[in-house]
Structure formats: C-alpha cells, structure tokens
C-alpha cells in the first residue's frame, strides 16, 4: 500500500474526528521515576471487545479502553497517569508514516471491520536505557514466556513473526474509516455479489477486475451489487473507488477452499475446486492420486501436519500430479470421509483443525481435506505426541535436533536451558518432549512457520 507522511498534530485531529471507541495497548517498563512506554498502540474503532493485563513486575502489558485525553497524551508522547501508574513522556518525531489498510485484514487478533489508516511514529533518538527487553517474562496474571520479546510478540501481534521490529519508544495508531466499505463478497451461481455499507458509499464506483473480466458500476445506495461472471481468474480484485480506492477485496483461488478472509464466501465449491486443480500444487495445495492405506498413509497424509505447521492448506485426493482427475474408485462419500477422518486422528499429533468434504469432478469422486493454520505447533506424523500442552498464546521453542517453531512448550527450566537456542522455550513442570516425531514439511517447498 502507498504511504504518506502526516504531522502529529494532524494525527491527533484525525483521531478525535473519528470518534468511536478509543483503546490503547502499552508495554510499560519500570523506571526509578515512573513507567516508560517501551511500545505503544492507539486503536480507534477497530473492534476490540475486552482488555488484557499481563504483569511481570517490572514489565507490564496493558490493553484497555480509555478516555480521549489519554489517547491524546499517548499520541503526543506526554506524561500521564493510568491505573495508578505514572507514565513517563517520550520524545518522538513530529512526522508519522501513514499507510492505508483495507477492511477484512487481520491485525493483532482483530479482524478490521472497516478500512483503516495505520500511523507509525519513531522515537526522536535512541533513548537512554531503552534497549530490547531481555530475560524471562513470568506473568502474574496470564501466560508466561521464555523471553520478553516473545511476550511482546504474543501480546501485540498474537504470535506474529514480527516479534520485535520497532525501536523502543515507538508508537503505532490504527484509525478506522467507516464512511464507505465492503462488508461481504459472495461468489456462486455464476455471480459475484458485493455487499456495500457506509454513509458515503452512494455515488462511488464498484469495480470487478481480473485478467478475464472487468466491469464497473455506480453505487446507488448501501446494499448489494451483483456482477454476472462466467469464470473467475486466479486473482480477482473488487475495488470501491471515488476515484481513490476506499476499500478492496482480493478473491483468490490459490489459497484453498477455506478463505482466510471470512468476509469472502464461496457457494460453488466445485468451481473453486476446479480452479485449485488447474492452479497446480503450491505450499497451500497438494495433490494425491490415491486414498491412504495403513502402509501408504505417511506418504499421503504428510501434507496435513505440514499445512498445520504453516498457514494452512488444502489436500486434494483423487487428482494426479498432472491435474487429471483419477477419482477414488468404488468408494462412497461416507466411506471416504470416515476413513480419512479416522486416519488423521490416528496419525497426526496433535490433531489440527481440519474438515473433510467430497465432490464430483468429471463424474469422479474427489476428496478435499482443508487444514487450518495450527495453534499448537509443531504438528507431526507420529504415534507418540510430544510432551507439551496446547495454548493459544504462541512463543517459539526448539525440539532437540529440530528447527524452531511457534508454540507453547511446558518443560522444566533445566530442559529449556539445554536447548540449542535457550531463548526459545517457556517453562512449566512436565516431561521433556520425545525427539522422535518428525515435523512434517512438504518436499521442495518452504513453509513460513
């Protein structure tokens, strides 16, 4: 997305004009004279519902709804009082980098209901005594982490790999724009229906654009606009413009049947299945020509944990490597679903979120296994589960002899410090993990863990 620069005074005015619900996320580090805002975020009308408090003594992470005056103080780097704590001032640059973000995107555990502007402010200079936080994060009111950087990642980014990519004293502000936006896109019956909302949506232009089809309409009022489309390209854009882009959706047939964006829905799965088939294999799509058997299940099902260890994906069974449909023989839909479900439950540890469906293509039955990105990584093909317990607040750890992977590991501290990278484990009392399970990865493909 294009970026521009905005004066801090203009940013404050935009935040006040936006109104709505004002929230802050703060990482506060204890100092002799108060609490230094190591990292700060302002979120205006982005959909947060309840706050959080993670307290590790000299490092406190706060997420809460606040009054407009507190938001202004945070934006200006002024000192203020919050919940009995004296927040110290911080000197930041007077120019913020502004970036527009369409609705439907996910940030910090929140799906943006509206388009938003993201503002980034860096500190003026490197601040005395403000380096990267180090040491354990032992939480008095929530999950604990092996490093404070991982605690910040889990709190601000909900486990994103961008654990600490900002200078101490940095600030980010998210300001939603609910004047005109795309609420939902529905694909089915040869049509693309776009549901539009907002007080300023009337008179704007809605455009459907791809390599195969391009069409524009003038929006008369909030509500549904329908395009008749015979075939969708691999990537199709839905743009709301005036003439600058006010919102957009990207409709992709390459990421599997389960769209990451729940504001885009398909009502013709066979159409998207055909698109997946001709799109070929990728890190999100894998073809297998035969159903797994007890002897061949490792070769067929290894994609399941690989998808769960990455960003999710779709396994198509009954399709050959050359995209031809070979089907599943005489098996019925119920037999296929039952066999695959049982084998995945018996073979993948821990069990990821998945769904098994069957469809006919060219008169032949094809099985579709949709796998979501895992919350309890790593996943493996093994009869013996690793010794860790599920947790939705990810950090990073290292199994003996393995590369690091997101997840929560419950190990004695002695086991953690014996790892190759001691900064990648959390601690609780449990037996060390069995190093034998193979963390599955698709041959020849790179997976972003």
Largest sheet: 8 strands, mixed
Helix content: 10-25%
Query: How far do the termini sit from each other?
Result: 24 Å
Strand content: 25-35%
Question: Which quaternary structure do these chains form?
Answer: single chain
Give the count of structural domains.
4
Q: Flag low-confidence runs.
A: 255-259, 384-449
**Principal-axes shape call:** flat
Radius of gyration: 25 Å
Q: Helix tally?
A: 8
User: Averaging pLDDT over every residue, what do you get?
Assistant: 77
Strand line-up in the sheet with most strands: 1-8-11-12-3-2-5-4
For the secondary structure, the number of strands is 29
Query: Would you tell me the structural class of the helices and strands?
Result: alpha+beta
Entry keywords:
single chain, alpha+beta, Immunoglobulin-like, 4 domains, 8-stranded mixed beta sheet, 4-stranded mixed beta sheet, 16% helix, flat, disordered C terminus
What's the SSE blueprint?
Layout: E1 3-7, H1 8-18, E2 22-31, E3 34-44, E4 52-55, E5 59-65, H2 68-76, E6 80-82, E7 85-87, E8 95-101, E9 106-107, E10 110-111, E11 116-121, H3 148-157, E12 170-176, E13 181-188, E14 191-197, E15 205-209, E16 214-218, E17 223-228, E18 235-241, E19 245-252, E20 264-266, H4 269-279, E21 285-288, H5 297-301, H6 303-309, E22 313-317, H7 333-347, E23 348-349, E24 354-361, E25 364-371, E26 380-381, E27 395-397, E28 405-407, H8 413-417, E29 438-439
Helix pairs in contact: 1-2
